[in-house]
């Protein structure tokens, strides 16, 4: 059974990469109302500039001298998949609607957001996202490289 599952994952990955235009790697920081988190994502850019991929995010300790006081039910790690759909795009600017969904140490989370990207250098994008987390706004600056 494990071999069938592994083989099907490899087959799906191969088919996705065969129809993909490009790979994209992104590093980001997310500021929530509780703390700062850092993360990275890897994904495929499909036709129509639709992006799908996986991400991993963790708590960033920004305090130099002492541990931050965090709530009892606080997510330390957030990993899952994302889907990004372009709303408006031009040669150097893009506005996307992104949905991330995944698991944390607290449970299952879905986070919607809007991201604006500027491409100052070919294949390098700078972005700023605004989203919702626990019904509170979040800010998410990022840098991404298209491979």
Describe the fold and architecture.
The protein is mostly beta strands. Helix content is 12%, strand content 61%. The protein contains one helix and eight strands. The protein has one helix at 2-19, and strands at residues 22-31, 36-45, 51-59, 77-89, 93-104, 108-121, 124-133, 136-146. The termini are far apart.
List keywords for this structure.
eight-stranded antiparallel barrel, Porin, mainly beta, 147 residues
Strand-helix topology:
Blueprint: H1 2-19, E1 22-31, E2 36-45, E3 51-59, E4 77-89, E5 93-104, E6 108-121, E7 124-133, E8 136-146
Antiparallel strand pairs: 1-2, 1-8, 2-3, 3-4, 4-5, 5-6, 6-7, 7-8
Question: Summarize this, please?
Answer:
This protein has 147 residues and is mainly β. It has one helix and eight strands; from the N terminus they run αββββββββ.
| Strand fraction | over 45%
- The topology string of helices and strands comes to HEEEEEEEE
* Count of helical stretches: 1
Distance between the termini: 34 Å
| Mean pLDDT figure | 83
Helix content range of the residues, please?
10-25%
The number of E-state strands comes to: 8
Just name the CATH architecture: Beta Barrel
The third-level CATH topology is Porin
- List the strand order in the largest sheet: 1-2-3-4-5-6-7-8
């Amino acid at each position: 059974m494990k071999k069938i599952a592994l083989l099907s994952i490899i087959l799906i990955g191969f088919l996705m990469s065969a129809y993909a235009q490009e790979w994209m790697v992104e590093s980001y920081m997310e500021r929530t109302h509780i703390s700062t988190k850092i993360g990275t994502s890897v994904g495929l850019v499909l036709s129509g500039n639709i992006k799908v991929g996986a991400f991993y995010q963790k708590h960033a300790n920004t305090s130099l001298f002492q541990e931050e006081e965090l709530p009892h039910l606080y997510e330390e790690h957030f990993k899952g998949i994302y889907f990004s759909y372009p709303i408006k795009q031009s040669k150097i600017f893009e506005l996307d609607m992104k949905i991330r969904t995944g698991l944390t140490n607290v449970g299952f989370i879905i986070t919607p957001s809007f991201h604006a990207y500027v491409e100052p250098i070919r294949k390098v994008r700078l972005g700023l996202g605004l989203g919702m987390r626990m019904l509170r706004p979040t800010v998410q600056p990022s840098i991404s490289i298209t491979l």
